[in-house]
Amino acid sequence: MTDPDRLSALDASFLALDTPTAPLHVGWTMRFGGGTPALAQLRSHLEARLHLVPRFRRRVVRPALGLGPSCWEDAPGFTIDAHVHAISAPAPGGAAELRDVAGALLSSPLSPDQPLWRVFLVDGLAESGFALVGQAHHALVDGIAAVQVALLLFGPEPSGGAPEPWRPARPGRGMLPAAPPVPAARRWAERPLSSAQGAVSGSTHLGLELARTLRHARPGPLRDAAAALEALAQRGPSTSLQASLTHRREVAYAQAGIDGVRAAGRRHGATVNDVLLTACSLALAKALQRRGELPAGLKVLIPVNVRGDAPPGALGNRISMVSVELPVAERDPIAALRQVRDRTRALKAVDAAGPLDVLSRAADRLPAPAQRTLARALAAASDYAMVVSNVPGPPVTLELLGRPLRALYPSVPLPAGRGLSIGCISYTGRLHVGLTADAEVVPDLADVARDVEAAFDVLRVEAPVAPTPWRARARRRRSANAPRSFSGGVT
Question: Please, which residues bridge with residue 249 across strands?
């Protein structure tokens, strides 16, 4: 019997946290050059490569009564036609119309009884070329996995010839019981499920209780996770961006040349990600000002890749999280960049992402009901304003049926209680930033995107870093020894 393709605890948590106003699917908008391919041609191209990503033909099957682990099983009757569609942008087919189309498509949740992805071919654009707007549930891919899938589906033709005709495997392949829970979390996980779920709603009680439980574990990674949980639960300033009002999504896009961003970072000992976070901070400061708000800081959640050397096409999630407070009250762009740099350095120095990764992998050994309780408890306990994600893009230029990919904008899902997310991916020498928002919470999303681009420009052209102390002393000595110049005379 083939081993079951089980969802990890982290994968399953994204399904457990779905709500009607917060469907947790990842999205993307891809702009291609060249003529629009026929829908049948696109379907045939993708179907010929699905053997490289088997879960794209699988659906999630949950056990009876929810007492065992969920698994990926081949979807009976799978057809590519149900997942690849075509749509035309309304006239005049400009950038605004494409954003409207993408927002409308990403507002629609995926069917839970089908493979959790779909793609729309968008034609009718005023500029040359066409677009693909796609979505996949976060249970299926994280940001790094999404890039790997793009390389497989849209990159060079794979070697090995045509795949064998696909036939779904027999349903019910080995639904194995979960492994026993890890000792440090056993007492917490074995609480009655009904009382645990009741406590989660609208409170941080369970997340903090879990942190206290882990503090009594033996010294090691699980005890370290307690401190990480308490850091996530620490209250930050609340803003009007922290709301879920509707399932309707708006998207907007921004770009910046990566060489200029790298140069801006190097001048101040900062990374590309530090510059991105600072640009977001400056833009969000303006968005909050428009709302009459001026918090001292804005706590954001940053996904961290812990995938390691997973093979191409390995789906699922291998991410951890860290939180950073953006200095939105700081108006000096360089001072803001240095503050962000120092905060991210401190997180890296203590491997802040490590403990939560350990906790996530330990959760794989919990019973499925306890996994769901844990996911909801952590979501209720975590306090942050939004997610900012940055992933490295494909290292080569991608093509689809001979048409080059020109731009790639990610769409990061909005967890419940958050009205805005920002995702960034590098590709062909540029950073492509995708902003996704609850349409009612952030009606000025296009303004926020413009402010992000403007912030990149400001950081790129700002004056170089101040001289080191020894250079400053040398300049003062030269100035003191130089002949003085007087107005109206010659030295």
Answer: 438
